[in-house]
Design goal:
44% of the residues lie in helices and 16% in strands. With 353 residues, it is an alpha/beta fold. α6 links the parallel β5 and β6.
Length: 353
């Protein structure tokens, strides 16, 4: 049995689905179901006794303690986080509460549980914390990619809150001996991605005939990682990672945002052409850049390949095609996550310059 926190969100839900597709080991799934946590992501698991869903907050110490005592998981995999930079700029306090205070309370509950385990279970136990490359800050166009030795230089309220949570996890290992593992991943994309992030937003807006908002000059560079590659990396780190170590997880796919948007448009031109025969690229609109927008992220994922034998299975071309095809095949899912409050958010955030 493992305990997954934040397992109804984009990456967490993909992890739970992949875990149960490849293992008979049950998963208890604790999620607060905020705007980006969607129980519908897990609909295919209805009636599966291996999946136990619990609606709750990692900051609820009594609840977490009860789940640990009742289910006695051999590992905790922590995805629970507020994760959208733009939202963190407008409302940083929620990010501090979930990503910092929530992680602290989760660590403390897990530490007390771990301390009480019999020697064999205690030695085998793991706490895996899922983080982001954004904690490392920004890179110039010629700088080498982030390694696990890069210093932390977070530039947004979101990345600062994740950096703080990473530091807490590290400290709980060095001070208390808790057997932790940390992964820092690059930008994920794939099925079940909430359509406020770049790729799903472009797909959804393009199909709706709306503008495709691109920040600034569109030359911000990111490394892109197909979400199912990320979940396979997490499984591998959980299986064989060394406690106390950090593993960067990347897709070896550095691309500027405007190229991502153009690629999505080209796939839609092929798979779902506009009625008027024009390209979806005609909907691209440049908007005012967001404050403090990091110019480039890049992940050096050689450590996880060298030490654990993991590397991504998808290229960007194969992963993005699968992603666009998934959204085209699931219009009902898209429609249900697009609430009125979500539409208001997008209109506010991407107002034309």
């Amino acid at each position: 049995m493992i305990l997954v926190t934040g397992g109804a969100g984009f990456i967490g839900a993909n992890f739970v689905l992949d875990w149960l597709a490849q293992s008979q080991e049950p998963a208890v799934n604790l999620d607060k179901l905020t705007y980006a946590g969607n129980a519908e992501n897990l609909a295919s698991l209805a009636g599966d006794a291996r999946h136990v869903f619990v609606h709750g907050d990692i900051g609820d110490t009594a609840l977490v303690e009860r789940l640990l005592a009742e289910h006695r998981p051999r590992a905790v995999v922590n995805f629970a986080a507020e994760s959208h930079v733009d939202r963190s700029i407008h409302g940083p306090e929620d990010f501090i509460q979930t990503n910092v205070v929530g992680t602290l309370r989760l660590l403390e509950a897990v530490r007390h549980h771990w301390n009480a385990l019999p020697a064999g279970e205690k030695a085998a136990f793991r706490f895996l914390h899922v983080s982001t490359d954004e904690v490392y800050g920004t890179l110039s166009s010629t700088a080498p990619a982030f390694t696990e030795q890069n210093k932390y230089e977070p530039n947004s309220p979101y990345s600062a809150s994740k950096a703080a949570s990473d530091h807490l996890v590290r400290a709980w290992h060095h001070t208390y001996g808790l057997p932790v593992l940390t992964t820092n991943c690059s930008n994920n994309y794939g099925p079940y991605h909430f359509p406020e992030k770049l790729i799903p937003l472009m797909i959804v807006n393009a199909l709706a005939g709306k503008p495709l908002p691109v920040y600034g000059d569109g030359q911000q560079v990111r490394d892109w990682l197909y979400v199912k590659d990320h979940t396979s990396a997490i499984r591998r780190v959980l299986e064989a990672g060394t406690p106390g170590e950090t593993y960067n997880v990347g897709g070896w796919n550095e691309k500027p945002n405007i190229e991502i948007v153009q690629t999505v448009c080209a796939l839609l031109d092929e798979l779902r052409p506009r009625a008027d025969g024009r390209s979806y690229t005609t909907q691209i609109t440049y908007v005012k850049d967001r404050p403090g927008h990091d110019r480039r992220y890049a992940i050096d994922a050689r450590k996880i390949e060298r030490e654990l034998g993991w590397k991504p299975a998808e290229t960007f071309d194969t992963g993005i095609r699968k992603t666009v095809q998934w959204y085209l095949a699931h219009p009902e899912w898209v429609a249900r996550v697009q609430s009125g409050s979500y539409r208001d958010w997008v209109a506010k955030q991407y107002a034309a310059a």
